[in-house]
Amino acid sequence: MEFRNKEIDKKQMAKSIFCISVGTAAGLLVYGIFLFFHIDIFGWNLGLIFAPLAAGYVETILADQIIGENIGAISAFILFIDTTFYSFILKNPTLGWNIITAGSIIVILQAAFPTLINYILLVVVGGILSNFFKTIKKYETNIKNRIQNQQFFRWETKDVEIETESLPVYDELESNQMINSAEFYFITSPSMKDKKYEIIQLFHSEVIVEKNKKIINAEPEKAEYLQLIRIKDGKDECLIKLLSKIKNAGGNGILDLSINYSLIGYSGESIQITAMGIGVLIDN
């Protein structure tokens, strides 16, 4: 026990022991009252917290009046050991560690080292919580700004006519003519019964339709129409790439042709078109 660099004599020791004894007695009295009247919450006696607190308080008041200084709330430690031994070992050894025990330890440390504990609670814990909430606020602001930046507005007035951009048109006839002029057989069935052919190998090609920001900011119906045109153009490009590969390998047709569409990228922002089939050389 350290008495702030003062010489410890018998008289000083006796005064200290007296303060500790009175504080301990006060704590035991409080604990006895809580036990007698069954002052508890869900079976946990609140004397586990208030008894050490009362002991440390009485000891501190007496020490200030008799000795003129705080001797460290020793009785609070004594009461904590006593109440813990009685409650968790003698009465019910199966209770173990719990929130009441933790609360008692915090109260005792607060009574013994008020400056240190207050610093930890207010500065350290407060700083951690403050930084945590600042981080949450920062992410919230960033998300809010991103959502706001993706919004679009259309201003309409009665006196001003809004110029509408002409929409592109997908020419189905032109697409069919381009495919048919390649002198290539596209067959979705796995075989040709009425023709002789030589199997070359399995071929595939793919085209990725990238994200278009103009489509995202367009009206829903317009965006759907524009995206459909982009997909059709991508399908034609994918077929042209596939027939070019087969022709370069000496073939003039494809069996078991399949075309697949899949979403790729973050949140499905792009579309991958894949064409696959067996390249063949068909006898004319």
Question: What is the secondary structure topology, with strand pairs?
Answer:
Layout: H1 10-36, E1 40-41, E2 44-45, H2 47-66, H3 74-91, H4 99-112, H5 114-149, H6 172-180, E3 185-186, E4 197-209, H7 213-216, H8 220-248, E5 253-264, E6 270-282
Parallel strand pairs: 3-5
Antiparallel strand pairs: 1-2, 4-6, 5-6
Helix pairs in contact: 1-2, 1-3, 2-3, 2-4, 3-4, 4-5
Please describe what this structure looks like.
This protein has a four-stranded mixed β-sheet with strand order 3-5-6-4, covered by helices on one side. A two-stranded antiparallel ribbon has the order 1-2. The N and C termini lie far apart (109 Å). The chain is 55% helix and 15% strand. It is rod-shaped, with a radius of gyration of 42 Å. It folds into two domains: 10-112; 172-282, 2-Layer Sandwich (Translation Initiation Factor IF3). The chain has eight helices and six strands. Strand 1 (40-41) and strand 2 form a beta hairpin. Helix 1 crosses helix 3, helix 2 packs antiparallel against helix 3 and helix 3 (74-91) packs antiparallel against helix 4 (99-112). The protein has 284 residues and is an alpha+beta fold.
